[in-house]
Write a structure and sequence with these properties.
This protein is α/β, with parallel strands linked by helices. The protein has 11 helices and 10 strands.
């Protein structure tokens, strides 16, 4: 059994949606999380830049002797879908787990996808879904204001700014009569309750963070590298910008105080 940590990275704190679920389903695992807070957002950048950043993020995790890497970022998973192929450890992004979950959930065959501009422009979800289930109809829409809302802690369903933004972006899906919506960016599950309130119960929301964590667990099992530790695993957090803001929002989000557990790393020099 393997006690080496699992490496998780994202452009910011959205990838914590994967960490939160990993801690629930694999409590004995050690985790190294890297949030590239100094360079967020990735979603408005070129494919070349996103690849360069993702490569540096993964090199940092590999320097921590991780046994698996999870790109907990919809943008990296979409724009650089092949980036895990040359790694010395197992890898997953969020694209495949979320696509499979949506195909299994839909009854009418109409799936909506929301993501960053880079994710939507890449057409990655449509390609992946239709490669598995060619009859599916896929409707995609970018929601560029969601990430800054989440990164700044605007997530309450009672906040009119959040509610109006959700309505503005998601109303067209009601006309398209989807019954399943992929939250194709790892920041978006943090807005799940407000999205669900607007769309209603008849539309199933696919939480990329949750699906990716479960998919990662199956990869660890297939490779026989699940930790058998009975102790609760340690989670180490690294960011490329100031640690204070991240600690505050991440702590609320994870439900534990992580002040003092976040370390700054100069990612550009790796
Ligand atoms: N974490 C990114 C994603 O899942 C969103 C934030 C960004 O644009 O970097 O696509």
């Amino acid at each position: 059994m393997n006690k080496r940590p699992i490496g998780v990275f994202d452009s910011g704190l959205g990838g914590l949606t994967v960490v939160r679920e990993l801690r629930k389903i694999l409590p004995g695992e050690n985790i190294i999380y890297f949030g590239d807070t100094g360079r967020v957002p990735y979603g408005s950048r070129s494919a070349e830049t996103i690849r360069k950043y993702a490569k540096q993020d993964m090199d940092f995790l590999l320097s921590g002797n991780v046994k698996m890497i999870i790109a907990a970022c919809g943008t990296v998973s979409s724009v650089a879908a092949d980036i895990g192929e040359s790694l010395p450890v197992p890898y997953t992004g969020v694209l495949k787990p979320a696509s499979i979950a949506a195909i299994n959930a839909t009854k009418c065959g109409k799936i909506g996808v929301i993501g960053t501009t880079a994710t939507v422009n890449s057409g990655s979800y449509k390609k992946t879904i239709q490669s598995i289930a060619p009859d599916m109809e896929v409707f995609s829409r970018d929601c560029p204001l969601f990430v800054p809302l989440v990164e700044n802690g605007f997530t309450s369903e009672d906040d009119p700014i959040v509610a109006l933004t959700v309505e503005r972006y998601l109303a067209p899906f009601l006309d398209e009569k989807i019954d399943t919506l992929i939250l194709g960016c790892t920041h978006y599950p943090i807005l799940k309750s407000v999205i669900s309130k607007f769309l209603g119960d008849s539309i199933t929301l696919i939480d990329t963070g949750k699906e990716t964590a479960h998919y990662a667990k199956s990869i660890l099992e297939e490779n026989s590298i699940v930790s058998d530790s009975k102790d609760v695993g340690k989670c180490s957090f690294f960011v490329s910008d100031r640690t204070e803001g991240f600690s505050a929002i991440a702590g609320v989000f994870l439900g534990t105080d992580i002040t003092g557990e976040v370390t700054h790393v100069d990612i550009g020099t790796i």
